[in-house]
Amino acid sequence: MSSTAVPTSGPVAPSARRSGLTWWKALAVGAVGAVVVNLIVLAVAKLTGASLVVVDGGVDHPITVGGVIGASVLPLLLGTGAAFLMALWKPVFLRIAQYVGGGLALLSVAGPLSSGADGGTIAALSLMHITLGVAVVTTLQLHRRNH
Prior knowledge:
Elements: H1 23-47, E1 53-56, E2 59-62, H2 65-89, H3 92-107, H4 110-113, H5 119-144
Helix pairs in contact: 1-2, 1-5, 2-3, 2-5, 3-5
């Protein structure tokens, strides 16, 4: 006689485990991904002749590689890092942060759109803001699958 009983105790089967990344791995993947995509956008904008200069109050602010890296990494690390800390208290903050972070990045596109720069620079900066929003949502999702 064969038995088809399923044991009720014991280790969890590997297929039942969630496959999310740890918080620091998710942050690293998100930051590197945002930087790489935004540097590609910067390079394409430069190759297509965008001025990559924003004038604010009569002062020229050139868009540099260092500026793109900083503007890609700092908001992502601060925002998603805060979400990861709040999720220690209530895991629902990961989902809330996905909506808030993605939404704020989309709203921040208003800055480049109202900057008065040339069309190529506006397009590049807008795409960089959208990329950061996608990176925030993706970074949080990579970790959320772990909860």
